[in-house]
Write a structure and sequence with these properties.
By secondary structure, the protein is an all-alpha fold. The protein folds into two domains: 266 residues, no CATH class; 116 residues. The chain is built from 13 helices and two strands, in the order αααααααααββαααα. The protein has a two-stranded antiparallel ribbon with strand order 1-2. Helix 2 runs antiparallel to helix 3. The two termini are 48 Å apart.
Length: 406
């Protein structure tokens, strides 16, 4: 028996050693692939800078190249440090390739780095050049939905992908938020949105250094959905389409729920809120019930009331026909359609998005007052939270709260 046990232990050690050797070989292969992607990214940025120098100026394009290259190398360094996570879980062997999902995430990160090249510079002038920062970030935001889909379709879901996705989201919010602020599109307080993730991580590092406990966060779809809303908002602020005060008020409305979520998450990881206790569950259930049954339906009614008051106060949107001023029936029709759908709870989030666009257009030529600020906030918060009870169709919420390709 002792000889047999010894043989089993030797066999187990041999297998463990073999797995370690295989992982080391795969790490080298992954490092080589990442190096190729890194060099390719730098060369692409160099080509982009050459093109920008012709249409934007040599000095501005050089600054763009330096800043975007630094951000790209930061992403590559973060990826290199996490290559050992390129596996489904800790008990599984490493994948021998990064996979298309992680490559798409790196492409998204490259686009974020390219957006960061416009930091600390004036908004580019020109009919189409002024759209360039927002369009680059927009492409990155689109890929945020695609990379997860690709991971599930190809069957290569990895811890590396989850980590890279979070790192890219955080960097994107910091870069785009800083750029929107430098363009005067958002209030300086919105910079907290870009700094929140890094402050959160710094707090965790400090707790580890002090030997303090860190409690796990339960998985939650709202973090992913709310990050997507922030990206969408920042895309629009980086387009020369809407300007303050609409973008300033919308920035506050978008920021408040997300920062509240960060604060609640911190209270959980620091142990100030115990989510696993029966008392905490009961409080959370009551809060969810109140939001679903009272707050969210109340926001829908508030939107209809405030919009009617706002339109009545300014005399309805107008259009000039044959030298005569008439109410814009098309604009009123869009407002009426969106409001009815929101109140009835038919794809309320989609129609809140339509309302945001209509209100942004409406307030280009109509000044905003306190009630308009409140209306804009209610529309944003209804889009964040959903329509709640007494709804006819909530397919939009199902789409937001699902993983594509699952």
């Amino acid at each position: 028996m002792q000889i047999e046990n010894t043989q089993r232990q030797s066999y187990g050690c041999g297998m463990s050693q073999k797995i370690i050797q295989c992982d080391e070989i795969r790490i080298k292969t992954l490092s080589q692939e990442l190096t190729q992607i890194s060099v390719g990214g730098l060369l692409s940025l160099g080509l982009g800078a050459l093109w920008l120098s012709a249409v934007w100026g040599a000095t501005a394009s050089l600054q763009w190249l330096i800043q975007s290259s630094v951000l790209w190398l930061f992403i590559c360094l973060q990826t290199s440090r996490r290559l050992k996570l390129n596996r489904p879980d800790q008990a599984s062997p490493l994948y021998d390739q990064l996979g298309w999902a992680n490559r798409l995430t790196l492409l998204r990160s490259w686009l974020i780095a390219a957006t960061g090249g416009f930091l600390f510079q004036d908004w580019p002038e020109g009919m189409w050049l002024s759209w360039l920062p927002g369009m680059i970030y927009f492409l990155g935001a689109v890929l945020d939905r695609v990379d997860g889909f690709m991971a599930r379709k190809t069957g290569q879901i990895s811890e590396l992908g989850n980590e890279l996705d979070t790192v890219s989201d955080a960097l994107g919010l910091a870069v785009a938020g800083g750029l929107a602020w430098s363009y005067g599109q958002v209030h300086v307080s919105y910079l907290l949105m870009g700094a929140a993730y890094y402050l959160f991580q710094a707090g965790l590092i400090l707790r580890r250094m002090l030997g303090m406990a860190i409690y796990p966060l339960a998985p939650s779809m709202h973090r992913r959905a709310w990050a997507g809303f922030q990206m969408g908002y920042l895309v629009v602020t980086l387009w020369p389409l809407f300007y303050p005060p609409v973008t300033l008020v919308a920035g506050f409305a978008f920021m408040l729920p997300a920062l509240t979520g960060f604060i609640v998450d911190w209270l959980v990881v620091s142990g100030r809120i115990t989510v696993n206790s029966d008392a905490a569950r009961r409080k959370l259930d009551r809060l969810i019930l109140f939001s679903h049954s009272v707050l969210q339906p109340g926001l829908r009614l508030a939107i209809a009331t405030l919009l009617a008051f706002s339109l009545w106060r300014v005399g309805f949107p107008t259009v000039v026909i044959g030298g005569e001023i008439w109410p814009s029936l098309v604009m009123l029709g869009y407002f009426a359609l969106a409001t009815i759908m929101v109140v009835l709870g038919i794809a309320g989030r989609y129609f809140c998005l339509l309302l945001l666009g209509l209100l942004g257009w409406f307030h280009i030529s109509n000044p905003m007052h306190f009630m308009d600020y409140l209306l804009l906030c209610c529309v944003v918060w209804s889009m964040f939270l959903g329509s709640g009870r007494f709804c006819l169709w909530q397919e939009d919420s199902h789409w937001i709260n699902r993983y594509d390709g699952a």
